[in-house]
Amino acid sequence: MIKLLSRIVVGATALFLLLQLVPYGRNHNNPPVIQEPQWGSTQAQQIARQACYDCHSNETAWPWYTNIAPMSWLIQRDVEEGRIHLNFSEWGMGDHEDHDLGEAIREGEMPPRQYTLIHPEARLDAARREILLDGLPADIGSNQGESGTIDHHKPRQQMIESAAPFDWRAMNMVLGLV
Ligand code: HEC
To answer: What's the whole-number mean pLDDT along residues 135-155?
Structure first.
């Protein structure tokens, strides 16, 4: 029994160390902040910074555990995909799906649950949700499809799909169940 247990521990440790060799998940870049939206109130901006900016801005905080696989893979994917959908640091610069902002907040879809589990400060109770909804930038969705905007949606999407070692959607569903 002891022998079996120690084999399991050694095996799990070896697997964990092997996972660290996967190159995906360490690209912790924060590109420059180009343009921020005009928030309706400072409190709304503050709440958005606490609840959304790690994944929807170029000011992501990268604490130590973001370097450790397999967590690092999930976090990298969240930030890369989050920035594609909505980036408060590149406001008005692409075809972000920012028209869904209010809906995502109202329905409790955002911030995602796996995030608020380890970031209690990002949780939105009814009061904070109202403040955020009231203070959302007024120009949501008004700058879609203008000529001259940067369309970095497709190349980055393709990049992520080819870089992802396995199906993130399935992984997210599993995480959602936990
Ligand atoms: C842990 C990272 C993370 C945090 C924190 C986060 N999001 Fe997201 N968000 C994502 C990812 C990843 C996507 C794209 C995939 C998806 O729709 O689930 C996304 C998509 C969205 C979308 C597009 C929804 C759609 O249906 O296409 C909106 C709008 C959004 N987020 C708003 C917010 C707001 C507002 C906050 C803060 C209250 C927030 N998010 C916090 C990761 C995050």
So the answer is: 57
